[in-house]
Amino acid sequence: MSLADVTFINMCRDVIENGTSTEGEKVRPVWEDGTSAYTIKRFGVVNRYDLRKEFPALTLRRTALKSAMDEILWIWQKKSNNIKDLHSHIWDSWADENGSIGKAYGYQLGVKHQYKEGMMDQVDRVLYDLKNNPYSRRIMTNIYVHQDLHEMNLYPCAYSMTFNVTKEPGKDKLTLNAILNQRSQDILAANNWNVCQYSILLMMIAQVCDMEAGELVHVIADCHIYDRHVPVIKELISRTPYPAPTVKLNPEIRDFYEFTTDDLIVENYQTWPQIKNIPIAI
Ligand SMILES: Nc1nc(=O)c2c([nH]1)NC[C@@H]1CN(c3ccc(C(=O)N[C@@H](CCC(=O)O)C(=O)O)cc3)CN21
Ligand SMILES: O=c1ccn([C@H]2C[C@H](O)[C@@H](COP(=O)(O)O)O2)c(=O)[nH]1
């Protein structure tokens, strides 16, 4: 039984049983037909995933791992904010006529900043620190940039990664852990999608720094199920999970900028049938 499924089921039960409804509140998102998209929400959810034990892919329904990796490469490697550089259509509703989502995600990670060591963007700063000063407690990114929020079509949801290295007794390699901070989470559309993509990111960064990927701690402020998703979630969590798949990276890649989705190796990913045409609140 996949550990990620158990975490997901417990989180959904907690939101449904102990969450509060936003119905009647002034909410921002709408459904495609223009009606308000209300949620049941739980404040302050924290989930831990140990990548040394299992890759945290859901088996209750299939997570599109290559598409999820493609999006994280779009943000962290291509540092793009244009949907023309993305192979899926998940961002189409938030792009302008030129394909831009504004100064969000990849745009922010591509901005160069002045450091004592020279000009670097946030991704190169992380790679530099992990290679030169791995025990630093200052290795983190942040794309929630207030001065640019007015030029973002959607404010970043998963907005910060804090990397932290531990030296485990008896292990040759250092362990790379991370905390993903997320202000808002659409559980059905994107919880496992986000968990898997940031796990892959952690694996990629660990590999190019010659470390082992350890724990991903996912901190979610507003963790919600949209009203139209509740019956789907109830059906999903009634399913019996399969064992977790094996997910690896091509071990030959040593440069973060050389990874492609072809380097993701997925084996034995047995899942329940996909839920088709999930409505996405805009
Ligand atoms: N309401 C809302 N929820 C989100 O999850 C979300 C947004 N808005 N806005 C921006 C991005 C876009 N995201 C999305 C949007 C759609 C899927 C989605 O439809 N996923 C499909 C698989 C897609 C594929 O195969 O490429 C799925 O079945 O989960 C995932 C993430 C995450 N974000
Ligand atoms: O990576 C992502 C991006 C977006 N989401 C969800 C979370 C919310 O349901 C919406 C954003 O709406 P806000 O009103 O800006 O919070 O998108 C996600 O779960 N993961």
Automatic annotation (TrEMBL):
InterPro entries: Thymidate_synth/dCMP_Mease, Thymidate_synth/dCMP_Mease_dom, Thymidate_synth/dCMP_Mease_sf, Thymidylate_synthase. One of its GO terms (cellular component) is cytosol. Its EC number is 2.1.1.45. (6R)-5,10-methylene-5,6,7,8-tetrahydrofolate binds at D186, A281. It is found in: Cytoplasm. Residues 7-277 form the Thymidylate synthase/dCMP hydroxymethylase domain. Pathway: Pyrimidine metabolism; dTTP biosynthesis. GO terms for molecular function: thymidylate synthase activity. Pfam families: Thymidylat_synt (PF00303). DUMP binds at R137, R138, R183, S184, Q185, D186, N194, H224, I225, Y226. Belongs to the thymidylate synthase family. Bacterial-type ThyA subfamily. Homodimer. This is Thymidylate synthase.
